[in-house]
Amino acid sequence: MADNLQGNAQTADLQVQARVVAQYIKDFSFENPNIERLLQGPGDDPNLKVEVNVNAKPVADNLFESAIHFTAKAESKAGVIYEVECIYAGLFHIENMPPPSLEPFLLINCPTLIFPFLRRLLADVTREGGFPPLLLDPIDFAQLYIQRQQQMAGAAGNDNKA
Q: Within a domain: residue 121?
């Protein structure tokens, strides 16, 4: 029994350690395909469609990549105003994370840490592209994770019915 208590104490001493090793643009595209038409006069209010996805993968022992896949497309009656696609990622060194907690940490906490840098990048690029800066509201990555889990559970339920 004393050995069991000692083992529990050693487990409690192992603290989760996580740190950002690097963050970087993995892929980036900015297109301004209809500038000639847009310069001919003021257009109508644009329609902006935004899509955000998050993925994570192991890279090496205790090293993981968490990536935000972002796309935005601004359109008006004149056509596409601009389209921006970006994969912004971070490398995270994570130790002593319980396996059930790892996926949520990689898909919620890690993107939350790197999102402000992606937000600034997108604002700068759209401004330098000749448009008002794209100022994104904060993203609730926990809600995205929950929605993704619900979609996967729904898809699994549909597969079992077939």
A: yes
Per-residue pLDDT reduced to its tens digit, 134-159: 999 999 999 999 998 898 888 777 66
Sign of the alpha-carbon torsion through 71, 77, 80, 82 = negative
What range does the domain containing 109 cover? 32-133
Asked if residue 144 is part of any domain, the answer here is: no
- In angstroms, the CA 88 to CA 26 distance is 6
Q: What is the pLDDT of residues 9-20, one digit of tens each?
A: 455 568 989 999
Cβ-in-10-Å burial (0-12, 13-18, 19+) of 141 comes to buried
CATH of the domain at 55: 3.10.420.10
* DSSP string across 25-66: EEEEEEE-TTHHHHHTS-----EEEEEEEEEEEEEETTEEEE
Answer whether residue 21 is part of any domain: no
List, in sequence order, every residue forming a beta bridge with 56; answer none if it has no partner.
66
